[in-house]
Amino acid sequence: MVKITKKEEAVLNLFWQNGPMFVKDLLEFYTEPKPHINTVSTFVRSLEAKGYLTHKERGGSFQYYPVISRQDCGQKSVENIVSRNFGSSYKSLVSCLVHDEKITVDELRELIDLIKKGAE
């Protein structure tokens, strides 16, 4: 997955929350001062070029929609982080989380119980 900017991520979140939209529809979700429609259009076209959005032509305009779910996007992000920073080792990631006290041993036990129940 190609990395996106924070502003592109904010636009993508609007699509995930609200479904397919035209660029002009996105402006409704911004507070004042609203960005110019050309600015928002640039973010949308960039997201499409990066493979996050696609469009259908509707009445001479383009209606955009995401081609990747929020969950799939999050999963890909985690995979990239684990690959880049932990040598593709999820065990190393979890070890780091425990070491930095981001997850407790009790929480790990809960996860193990969930995994065991899912395997049954």
Write the layout of secondary structure elements.
Layout: H1 6-18, E1 21-22, H2 23-26, H3 37-49, E2 53-58, E3 61-66, H4 70-86, H5 90-99, H6 105-119
Antiparallel strand pairs: 1-3, 2-3
Helix pairs in contact: 1-3
Walk me through what this model shows.
This protein is mostly helical. It has helices at residues 6-18, 23-26, 37-49, 70-86, 90-99, 105-119; strands spanning 21-22, 53-58, 61-66. Strand 2 and strand 3 form a beta hairpin.
Short description:
By secondary structure, the protein is mainly α. It has helices at 6-18, 23-26, 37-49, 70-86, 90-99, 105-119, and strands spanning 21-22, 53-58, 61-66.
Q: So how many helices?
A: 6
The main sheet orders its strands as 1-3-2
How far is the N terminus from the C terminus?
33 Å
Could you tell me the strand content as a percent range? 5-15%
> How would a crystallographer describe the biggest sheet?
3 strands, antiparallel
Choose one word for the global shape.
elongated
Instruction: Indicate the radius of gyration in whole angstroms.
Output: 19 Å
Tell me the total number of β-strands. 3
Low-pLDDT residue spans:
none
Order of helices and strands: HEHHEEHHH
Report the structural category: mainly alpha
Relative helix content: 55-70%
The pLDDT mean sits at 93
